[in-house]
């Protein structure tokens, strides 16, 4: 990989006119790029870094009226409602084959996601969904059943994402969200950090969970209840 160009000075940081040149500074020691690594399953969540996640430099938004959910509706769930041990049923999803393949063609065009003939002749026995399509199904269920009602802010990230079994067209999946921990945010005053665990199961003919296909652990920021 080619080295990235040296960062330029921030916009608007012009040198004052007629200012005398500063003494030449010694070059800072070049930082070593962090080594990429996978998060081990079941690893405990790391302490929340200051300013982590989306909009890391911004403070909490100023209140301009009633708290709103992630989709803009009036919020009814706040940080205080997301207590450890609480579980949310995220409903059932039927995997649409055409959508599954269209997603793969656009974002993950590996042969076992898009080439039906080759996939059928392989050990996969047919097309399997991109794992990122599967986690997108989970995300939509999370939005519909929780974030659409919750005073949610951004997320500082995830600790685990595992695809435990192939997902195929026509599968019926059930999704669930469990609250694992909650504490006031040290990086974002006015918000609380909630540790969450999400799972998806393939349902059997009897409608009961037959096989776990996805597991994820992540954190979300939620607004503290006003007053």
Count up the helices.
4
Question: pLDDT average, as an integer?
Answer: 81
Low-confidence stretches: 1-46, 48-63
Number of strands: 5
Largest beta sheet: what is the strand line-up?
Answer: 1-3-4-5-2
Secondary structure class reads alpha+beta
User: For the terminal residues, how far apart are their CA atoms?
Assistant: 52 Å
Strand content: 15-25%
**Rg over C-alpha atoms, rounded to the nearest angstrom:** 23 Å
Query: What order do the helices and strands follow?
Result: EHHHHEEEE
- The amount of helix comes to 10-25%
Name the overall outline: elongated
In this structure, how is the largest beta sheet organized? 5 strands, antiparallel
Write the layout of secondary structure elements.
Blueprint lengths: L86 E8 L2 H11 L3 H4 L1 H5 L10 H17 L9 E7 L8 E13 L6 E13 L5 E15 L4
Antiparallel strand pairs: 1-3, 2-5, 3-4, 4-5
Structural write-up:
This protein has 227 residues and is an alpha+beta fold. The chain contains four helices and five strands; from the N terminus they run βααααββββ. It has helices at 97-107, 111-114, 116-120, 131-147, and strands at residues 87-94, 157-163, 172-184, 191-203, 209-223. It is elongated and about 60 Å long.
Provide key terms for this protein.
227 residues, alpha+beta, five-stranded antiparallel beta sheet, 4 helices
Can you give me a brief rundown of this structure?
This protein is α+β, with helices and mostly antiparallel strands.
């Amino acid at each position: 990989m080619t080295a990235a160009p040296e960062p330029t000075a921030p916009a608007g940081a012009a040198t004052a006119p007629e200012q005398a040149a500063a003494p030449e500074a010694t070059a800072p020691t070049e930082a070593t790029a962090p080594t990429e690594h996978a998060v081990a399953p079941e690893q405990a969540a790391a302490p929340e870094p200051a300013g982590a996640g989306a909009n890391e430099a911004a403070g909490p938004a100023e209140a301009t009226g009633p708290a709103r959910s992630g989709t803009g509706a009036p919020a009814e769930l706040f940080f205080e409602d997301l207590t450890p041990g609480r579980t949310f049923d995220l409903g059932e999803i039927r995997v649409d084959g055409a959508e599954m393949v269209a997603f793969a063609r656009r974002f993950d065009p590996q042969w076992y996601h898009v080439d039906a003939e080759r996939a059928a002749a392989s050990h996969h026995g047919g097309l399997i969904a991109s794992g990122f399509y599967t986690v997108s199904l989970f995300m939509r269920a999370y939005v519909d059943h929780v974030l659409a009602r919750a005073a949610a802010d951004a997320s500082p990230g995830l600790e685990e994402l595992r695809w435990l079994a192939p997902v195929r067209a026509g599968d019926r999946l059930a999704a669930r969200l469990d609250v694992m921990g909650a504490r006031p945010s040290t990086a974002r005053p006015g918000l609380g950090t909630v540790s969450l665990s999400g799972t998806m199961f393939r349902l059997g003919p009897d409608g009961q969970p037959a096989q776990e296909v996805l597991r994820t652990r992540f954190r979300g920021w939620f607004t503290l209840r006003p007053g």
